[in-house]
Amino acid sequence: MTSLLSEVLEAHGGLGRWRRFTTVTATLVSDGELFAAKGLPRDLRPRRMTVDLHEEHASVRPFGAPDQHTDFTPGRIAIERADATVVAERLDPRAAFAGHTLETPWDPLDRAYFNGYALWTYLTTPFFMTMDGMVVAETEPWHESPTECWRGLRVTFPACIASHSTVQDFYFGDDRLLRRHDYHVDIAGGFAAAQYVDGIEEADGIRFPTRRRAYLRQPDGRPDHDHVMVSIDLGDVHYA
Question: Which residues lie across from 70 on neighbouring strands?
C-alpha cells in the first residue's frame, strides 16, 4: 500500500471502520447528456441504492415500475419484482456492449448495468482500492489551478471487477479527500470523462462526496463544462 493511499483511507474514515460495515444505502438523483444520447427518458425521481462493500453487488429501486429493482453483479444484470420474479435478465452483460458508440441506444438492462457498476465504484471509493487484484500506484499530480495541486492514484482494476475502464485516476486535495476521478466509459464508445466531486459529508464515521459531475475530458485533461455527461446527487447515506 502506498503512503498516499494510507493517508487517503484515513481521511475518508479509516480502513478499520470500513471493514466493520458490509453495505451502504443512499438516495440518489441522476441526470446528464449521456442518458439523452442513449435515448433514455429523463427521470429525476429519487431512487434508493444499495451496494455491498466487499464484493461487487448493487441494487437500485424503484426501476421501471414501483415494485421493481435491479440486481447487479459483473456476470449478471437483472430487473426483478419485489417477490424475486425476474422481469428481464442478461448474463455476461459486458459483452452486449461490443461495438457500441456514444450514440448507440441503451435498453433498460444496459442502463441498469451501467448504474450498478458506476454506483458501486463511487460508493466504495477509495476503500475498494484495497481489494484483492487492485493495482494502485501514485501517478502525476493534477494542477487544477496555479495554486491548487491534487495528488493522484492510478488504479488498474482486475478483470473480475466491472467498472468504467481498466485504468482510472483519482485525485485528492491537501486534506486527502477525493476531488476528481478520471476514466473512459468503455461501454459507450470509450469517451474520456473527468468527474468532479464535492459536498463532502460524513455518515457512520465514513466521509464521502454527495455531489458528482462528470464532464467530457478534453485532450489537455481539462473538463468541458458545457457537457455534463452524468450528474449524481446523493443523500440519506447509511452504512450497516
Answer: 79
Question: All 3 cell numbers of residue 16?
Answer: 478499520
Could you give the CA distance from residue 8 to residue 206 in angstroms, rounded to a whole number?
12
Domain ranges of the chain: 3-235
Cis, bond preceding 126 (omega within 30 deg of 0): yes
pTM for the full predicted model:
0.97
φ/ψ (deg, to 5) at 64: 85, -30
Q: Please tell me the CATH code under which domain 3-235 is placed.
A: 2.50.20
The DSSP string of 79-103 is: EEETT--EEEEEESGGGGGTT--TT
pLDDT digits (tens, 9 = 90+) for 185-219: 999 999 999 999 999 999 999 999 999 999 999 99
* Contact yes or no for 52/161 (Cβ under 8 A): no
Model pLDDT for residues 60-74, shown as the tens digit of each residue: 999 999 999 999 999
